[in-house]
Amino acid sequence: NAGVTQTPKFRVLKTGQSMTLLCAQDMNHEYMYWYRQDPGMGLRLIHYSVGEGTTAKGEVPDGYNVSRLKKQNFLLGLESAAPSQTSVYFCASRYGIGTGDQPQHFGDGTRLSIL
Amino acid sequence: QQQVKQSPQSLIVQKGGISIINCAYENTAFDYFPWYQQFPGKGPALLIAIRPDVSEKKEGRFTISFNKSAKQFSLHIMDSQPGDSATYFCAAEDYGGATNKLIFGTGTLLAVQP
User: Fold this and answer.
1) How far apart are CA A109 and CA B26, in angstroms?
2) Are A31 and A94 in contact (CB under 8 A)?
3) Is B46 within 8 Å of chain A by CB?
4) Min Cα–Cα distance to chain B from A82, Å
5) B89, B6 in Cβ contact below 8 A?
6) Residues β-bridged to residue A33
């Protein structure tokens, strides 16, 4: 049981390049989230999904796109990377809003630098 | 109204001391208040959480105190240990509401000196 797995762990891009970050969870969770973490700003929600085939915008969605074609995977895309997108990206998943409190489970992050 | 304000930004405590981190919120619809702990190079992990129907919740050395009228909640770490050195995030959510989103504070970097 791996939990939430993010790939890659590190990446360096040049401005204007594109890339996709992959998040995979093996807990059969309905909800998945993408956050970015920057010094002094905490965790800010980029996009999220409440089920396969659905996505929604979070707090800072500009410059990012997402897809949830399979329940276990949530992809975050950068179409044209900008230096302002240099950050640590975290994926999280959650069983759903059911009986009992359901915490978010986080991966260990992808450290992305854009030159 | 969606913000969660967290203080202090950083905290240094001696081993065996009490660490206290405070958070405040505005949105009265928030009804779920978790604390997450993050070690360097790792993702955040749930530490303890509280619902507003109780004023305090304790799990081992960690206690959440909740003041609904003041819209404030705090994390107390008793007998702080060097292994507690980490970044702590408070969060709030309208659990079961339309948004299904946690709003995080900006984090507190705790260093426990031996």
Assistant:
1) 30
2) yes
3) yes
4) 23
5) yes
6) A48, A92
